[in-house]
Amino acid sequence: MFDRDIRVTVLGNTGVGKTTLIERIKGSKVKTLQAQKTLNINAEEKKIRLRSSELYPWYSIEAHRKYRIVAIDNPGDYKLRRMWREVLRKFTTDGMLFLLDPKQSIVVQKNAMEDSYNYFLDSLDLNPKKADIFAQNKKYIFHFVVNKCDTLDNFSENEFTLTPYIKEKAVDFLSHFAFTMDEFKRTFPRSKIGISYLSAKYSPYLDLDKLFEILKVYRYQT
Ligand SMILES: Nc1nc2c(ncn2[C@@H]2O[C@H](COP(=O)(O)OP(=O)(O)OP(=O)(O)O)[C@@H](O)[C@H]2O)c(=O)[nH]1
Ligand SMILES: [Mg+2]
């Protein structure tokens, strides 16, 4: 009865790793993952105990609480992207995880990010003026994930760790999106904007768990 939900809509251009991240969170092994374009909207659920629960004393609720991650997976292909608008109207979530691939075109991914921005507004009201006003009070989480950070350096191990060298490259890549990210903050001033750098495929499970730890704090302020 103490359980809580963290609900996110997972968006980003095709091939950035949305489905891979969701599968990893669900506990799938990298070897069993199949690369396949998502063609439909899938609501995936997974009840997990966040690692941080171990940091609380046994008598605290937080030590026993489970979090149910509800991740809505979406197709990233631009021809199917209008489904984002549908999904945002149909499923109420706490916000979005927007994934980026440093090896893909910046322009194309910026378009995807702008689409997500517009569809979030459309989901509030199809009248743009009204949507802008509603957005002022919305407390969404807009979390941007630079995925595939393993591709930014030659690395051979199976487990990915973020080195200062890789982080610098990832930050540099993300700087191209600063204007659009700021636009989210301006339009939704009460929202939380966050950033993570990871590898959905090669980050150890606990690093992926950390991402949801951040979302949890944003959502429940604990
Ligand atoms: N090197 C590397 N490859 C990754 C990573 N994450 C995903 N991939 C690969 O990228 C490809 C696309 O991954 P998907 O998870 O299917 O991408 P998607 O965003 O769901 O794509 P759509 O469903 O078409 O929108 C697959 O071959 C994955 O194995 C990562 O962190 N590192
Ligand atoms: Mg997919």
Describe the protein's architecture and organization:
- The chain has 222 residues and is an alpha/beta fold.
- It has a single domain (4-220), classed as P-loop containing nucleotide triphosphate hydrolases (Rossmann fold).
- It has helices at residues 18-25, 82-90, 106-124, 128-135, 164-174, 178-187, 205-220; strands at residues 4-11, 42-48, 67-73, 95-100, 141-146, 192-197.
- It has a six-stranded mixed sheet, with helices on both faces.
- Helix 2 (82-90) runs parallel beside helix 3 (106-124).
- The longest helix is centred in the middle third of the chain and has 19 residues, at 106-124.
- The protein is globular, with a radius of gyration of 17 Å.
- It starts with a strand and ends with a helix.
- It binds guanosine-5'-triphosphate and magnesium ion.
- Guanosine-5'-triphosphate binds at residues 12, 14-20, 35, 37-38, 75-77, 147-148, 150-151, 199-202.
* Residue fraction in strands: 15-25%
Report strand order across the widest sheet: 2-3-1-4-5-6
Architecture, according to CATH?
3-Layer(aba) Sandwich
In CATH, the homologous superfamily goes by the name P-loop containing nucleotide triphosphate hydrolases
| Dominant shape | globular
Q: What is the secondary structure topology, with strand pairs?
A:
Blueprint: E1 4-11, H1 18-25, E2 42-48, E3 67-73, H2 82-90, E4 95-100, H3 106-124, H4 128-135, E5 141-146, H5 164-174, H6 178-187, E6 192-197, H7 205-220
Parallel strand pairs: 1-3, 1-4, 4-5, 5-6
Antiparallel strand pairs: 2-3
The chain binds guanosine-5'-triphosphate and magnesium ion.
Guanosine-5'-triphosphate (GTP) binds at residues 12, 14-20, 35, 37-38, 75-77, 147-148, 150-151, 199-202.
